Amino acid sequence: MKKTFFYxxxxxxxxxxxxxxxxxxxxxxxxxxxxxxxxxxxxxENETQGWSQRIDYPDTxxxxxxxxxxxxxxxxxxxQIKVYPNPFAGRTSTELQICEDGEAIVSIMRINGSxxxxxxxxxxxxxxxxxxxxxxxxxxxxxxxxxxxxTVAKMVNTATGTADKIDISYLEGYSSQTKAVGxxxxxxxxxxxxxxxxxxxxxxxxxxxxxxxxxTSELITLFFTESSSTTLPTVTTSAVxxxxxxxxxxxxxxxxxxxxxxxxxxxxxxTSHNPTVSNSHTTDGSGTGSFTSSITGLSQNxxxxxxxxxxxxxxxxxxxxxxxxxxxxxxLPTVTTSSVxxxxxxxxxxxxxxxxxxxxxxxxxxxxxxTSHNPTVSNSHTTDGSGTGSFTSSITGLSANxxxxxxxxxxxxxxxxxxxxxxxxxxxxxxxxxxxxxxxxxxxxxxxxxxxxxxRGNLQYTTTGxxxxxxxxxxxxxxxxxxxxxxxxxxxxxxxxxxxxRGWIDLFGWGTSGWSCQPWENENRTTYIxxxxxxxxYTNNLTGSYANADWGVYNAISNGGNxxxxxxxxxxxxxxxxxxSRAASTINGEANARYAKAVVNGTKGLVIFPDxxxxxxxxxxxxxxxxxxxxxxxxxxxxxxxxxxxxxxCIFLPAAGWRNFRVVSNVxxxxxxxxxxxxxxxxxxxxxxxxxxxxxxxxxxxxxxxGQSVRxxxx
Length: 715
What we know:
5-stranded antiparallel β-sheet
């Protein structure tokens, strides 16, 4: 491998009979621009004595004269650097010469003094290869510091690299004391001449020649004239993107300026191959580096050819040719209207299908409706996503027994298109009973601006059969609502809770939806309580990211629509608002009548009145309204009488008791109904529930492993 040095030492010596005289000449080389320049040999000529000699690496000292050799000579101390190529495109290789063992700091510094990358450690004397990479095009400095000196080399990066880093690898050792034997005599004051040689990719170059009478030791600097030939720039073409019917985005990267300033750059395009700047083109700045170009004024559905270009004083260079085709012109989308279903007195379900986007993104779609023909988006409407394909729309806020007209719509940059018009008539308003999915027709306010509908009965479960789950799978078991609001399982079956019991149960531990905790997992005292921490934290509720721990969210209820995600559990705050804060009808002179205790078909429990309630004709007004201490037998209803109360919108929660592992207590005496809210009390072992008994109605927190009733709601 050819070796190059930045620094040579020549010792010229003359001997007499009584003494030896010596002259030490040291050499260094620079480019004409002032940068240090590597060299491989020095030609030494004694014009007075008529001899010449070339000194090659590794000979760094020449002893001239007839006397004994010189044993000690000044050695190179400072670290030496050669950067080639420089400028470079993202990455370059550098040779580093370390002259003595010791600690070294090798760093790349920006022009503002900040450090890009750095090596700090021990380097033994020798020759090293440094692979330098820079991410950004920039002027930087390679700095090497040792205990014997510091050297700095300027680097110019013209392109984007992969990383800011320095990789150092040892090549071979270095000796600073090699001597060559002189071939001729020397006397102090002889006329000497010196020049240096260096081999590069362009061949062997020679420095200037220094001629002088050599009378003293000194440092001589030799200069190399750098090649300054100018060529065309080098430029690459970027990929084409963001193509529309009339525009596109391209660009390029000028990786080399050809030793002359790039005065213009951009892209040019045509419908023929090899476009030039005489065709349509952009102008996107000057100099080297990456650039982005906006191509405009194109024709639709047309194939174009594009090239990046860069111009300097030599001429214009072009990057590789790329091809793209513009899209067709934009038109209105095409959309159809789906049939109307699930019609109630105030709601309906419709939707549509966007079958063509008109060559532009569909930004909005849905249905619009009115009591007049040809409804538009200026009328009532839904917004159901974007893009092509089918969608479902929920129409709300309708008036009972009213005829409506509905159309699907889709909007893109060309405007809004409509599907065919359909008509439907809402049902006559009904405040009581339950719909086909088991949801009450009557509504109950649980927060400001939020109403729900209760399920037709308490939630029940058996390990037989299977059902769909919210994650798209199926799970063992069947979930259902009790046939009547006053139905509950009782102690015998709930006592038998286990993974193998095939009967029905209706007292569940908190969050035992089957998602992360099975309905039977609190059957015995060996069950670890942290099973009831959704997501592994007691602060998580059965909502949001952990909503699948809610029985109604995760499971399909067989007689409740048989589809996962239709139901949910009330929060603690919603139970409190329902029972103690909401505005409701006046009953028997009691304003905001919300609840009353009662016995229904022989079962004790709590009656919850809907927001809008009218006492059925011929029935006595209830007593003990909103009184938590009232006894259950204040109000007693037969099955027939309850049917009328239910038809008027009332909800009944039976006193089904509660379960502690397999021990069931207070059946027919108290009711405990879970909320979806965690409790921070008792180290996270508790969750909130609504409860009632003969003396009170309220909300408190209980152990999560207690089996309690669940009554689901729909928004």
